[in-house]
Amino acid sequence: MRPYTRAIADSRTPSLRLLFAGLVAFSLAILALAPAKAGVERDLIAGLAGEAEPVLNDKSIASAERTKKLRSILSSVFDNQQMAQSMLGRYWRRADDGQRSELATLMKTYLIDVYAGRMDSIDGQVKFEVGGEKVIGNRTIVDSKVLRPGPPPVSVVWQVETVNSKAVVTDIVVEGVSLVVSQRADFTSIIRSQGGLDGLIKLLKQKVGS
Amino acid sequence: MRYRLRKLVTVIRSATFALAFAGVASGCATLPDDPLDRADVLAANDRFEPANRMVFAINEAVDFVLLRPTAILYRDFMPDPGKDLVFNFVRHFTLPLTIVNDIAQGEWDRAEIASKRLFVNSIAGFGGVFDAATGLGLPHHKEDFGQTLATYQVAPGPYIVLPLIGPSSTRHAFGRIVDFGLDPLTYFLAKTPAKLSLGLRAVSIVDQRYRLLGPLDDLKQNSLDYYAAVRSLYRQRRTYEIRNLGDEATPKSTATVFETPINREG
Q: ipTM value of the model?
């Protein structure tokens, strides 16, 4: 054992003992704070599930009204710019300010439409089960399952990150299929084959408008 | 005999050479100078894209006139309990091949689960139409030779769309051929009338297409380039299956999905 380690372990010197105690207290404080901080991410998903479940299961609401409600629930959990940026990757850096703001708005509307439609098309009584969470770097992964009577449960994994000091959903993986990876493949193909970013903007406008 | 064999070897050799040459030639021809574009081409790993798009379009046409309408009829006219029986039955017959590949991968626990499942459902499930095994802690899973190659670090190779079969990687396509010889069912069905094996295959295709009705209609409606969307979906699902994340036979944390990039495999 090296001398300074022994000094800490023995804690004979008052200043070292104080330092040691301080270190212990500090690490305990971090341990205590970590789960509390991580809880925000899980709460975001649990909140989303809690809000969406009654809307989906209330068959008295008209379809258009339900889609509207789902849209408003979903729009609070994404960050426009962050989503567009991660889906366009390198092309985002090439885009000018006008293209950026247009893409961010269009993509958000497009994604929320798609997801509201997807949630709406689930048949029968739906139950969301929010599972555990895991922190990987600056991302928090929240596990969940969509349960319906009959078919096997569907695994939905959420990636939550802090963007502009707010916890937002940055990816959704349904049975191994990632929203960001899929959209990136789709958008990249359009950018490459149909007139760059402007081509993509044009197509998205058609899609959102329809 | 010897002459024939030599001729066969020559044919294979020249075919391999032609394929390799075509691969190199088209690979060189399509790789752009711009680094940004080049990275996209490499990520898509689709050097046969023009040919693939053509086969994809033909497959789409066949699907539109034949497979999808059949699947819709099946959805509307087959009662739900009947669909469950068909689903169980079709899955049951994939187990022998799964066991062979589990063993080839050195996955003894999974081979054991699949073997027990085959035994239990053959008897208590009346030849596989009922699923008694899942309740006994023997969940279903599926393996093929393409997945076995993946576990031995064989690269997926470029994306190819096979006529009628659909999205595939070169590795997966090669695996399909090997699977035909590897599947104990092939030899079992060889002794029965051809109608039986064709019937089983047809039922399996209808069942699969029925299960894909929702996802594929959704993808078609919600994508800008359906071809690229299917390519991405195929790769992601395939990676998920290779890592055994989609089945209950080896429980894993779903968070592992995020630990490695999933868009580079297939």
A: 0.79
